[in-house]
TrEMBL record:
Domain HTH luxR-type: 38-104
Pfam families: GerE
Organism field: Paenibacillus konkukensis
Coiled-coil annotated residue ranges, if any: none
Keywords on record: DNA-binding, Transcription, Transcription regulation
Name assigned to this protein: Tetrathionate response regulatory protein TtrR
InterPro entries from the UniProt entry: Sig_transdc_resp-reg_C-effctor (IPR016032), Tscrpt_reg_LuxR_C (IPR000792), WH-like_DNA-bd_sf (IPR036388)
Name of the gene encoding the protein in the UniProt record: ttrR
Length: 109
């Protein structure tokens, strides 16, 4: 992925789920996107699994909020998150977010 496309790809991903992209202006979105891309590649996460993790990490969404914004069932959200957590060998959301945070700290914008 080219550097110029990173912000646009994140914007498109969040818009697909009905999120307000402008509310992210204070976040280091480039670092989050680089970290998510690295994490997704390393653990072979699907696009949808990456979206679920991003919505939790960037917005603090609950499973129900993700389901509402992405117009999918809450059970489907849980399945995507469980699959991502299994691939990453983490047993809790805290561990998942901790792992993502380490990738964010190492990401270069």
């Amino acid at each position: 992925m080219e550097d110029g496309n990173r912000g646009e790809n994140t914007k498109k991903m969040l818009e697909l789920c009905g999120s307000d992209y402008e509310s992210l202006h204070d976040l280091p979105i480039q670092r989050v996107e680089i970290a998510m891309e690295t994490l997704a590649n390393r653990y072979a996460l699907t696009k949808r699994e990456s979206e679920m993790v991003t919505l939790i990490a960037a917005f603090g969404f609950s499973n129900r909020e993700i389901a509402e914004h992405c117009t999918i069932s809450e059970k489907t959200v849980k399945i995507h998150l469980a699959n991502a957590m299994n691939k990453m060998s983490v047993k809790s959301m805290r561990k998942l977010l901790s792992l993502l945070f380490r990738y964010v700290l190492n990401a270069s914008p």
